[in-house]
Write a structure and sequence with these properties.
7 helices; binds 2'-deoxyuridine; binds zinc ion; zinc ion binding; EC 3.5.4.5; cytidine deaminase activity; metal-binding; CMP_dCMP_dom
């Protein structure tokens, strides 16, 4: 009985938040942070980790309120493992989403982790330098824990002096998805 009620409550909150409280451009509300954290934790459960035994989950908040998640995907050739952060960005872009307002990241560790250098570069392609990135410890959703285990940084903190030498970057504009592709 407890589980379905909880699921209904989560669904209600999702609808309420995305309909009544769309994300704002300036920072993440406490609601958005909590919502993104829950999605990141859920995504972490899907991590494929037979080689590293290390699970990471990421949740990306799009401008329209949608959340796109990613989990880490190991590979026997360790170097081609894919990070959760990149999975989330690539999933979003391949679904026609290019505009984001926040990204939450969580791993199994009791301290927040920060994205690797490759992910920082990939994130900086699509996310503004001021975009908030809540980094979560594995206990950060536990209400019994006094220190909440969250550290908030921005894309600009993660990758200062990022690559800006192409024409597209002169206006810091990510081209929109072509209109005729929206209906596909
Ligand atoms: O920020 C990070 C660091 C590592 N990983 C994943 C990649 C690989 O599957 C595993 C071990 O590095 O953790 C991420 O998803 N994000
Ligand atoms: Zn990475």
């Amino acid at each position: 009985m407890f589980v379905p009620l909880r699921m209904l409550w989560n669904l209600f909150m999702e609808l309420r938040i995305s309909l009544l409280m769309p994300p704002s451009d300036s920072g993440l509300s406490e609601f958005d942070k909590h919502r993104l954290s829950m999605h990141a934790f859920k995504a972490k459960e899907k991590a494929y980790h037979p080689h590293s035994n290390f699970s990471v989950g990421a949740a990306l908040l799009c401008t329209d309120g949608q959340v796109i998640t990613g989990c880490s995907v190991d590979n026997a050739a360790y170097g081609v493992s894919t990070c959760a952060e990149q999975v989330a960005i690539v999933k979003a872009v391949s679904e026609g989403r290019r505009s984001f307002v926040g990204l939450a990241i969580v791993s199994d560790l009791s301290v927040p982790i920060t994205p690797c250098g490759v992910c920082r570069q990939v994130l900086a392609e699509f996310c503004d330098p001021g975009m908030p990135v809540p980094l979560l410890a594995n206990h950060s959703l536990n209400p019994d824990n006094n220190s909440r285990g969250m550290k908030e940084v921005t894309i600009g903190h993660l990758l200062p002096f990022g690559t800006e030498h192409t024409q597209a970057w002169e206006s810091r504009r990510i081209p929109d998805v072509p209109n005729d592709l929206h209906s596909l």
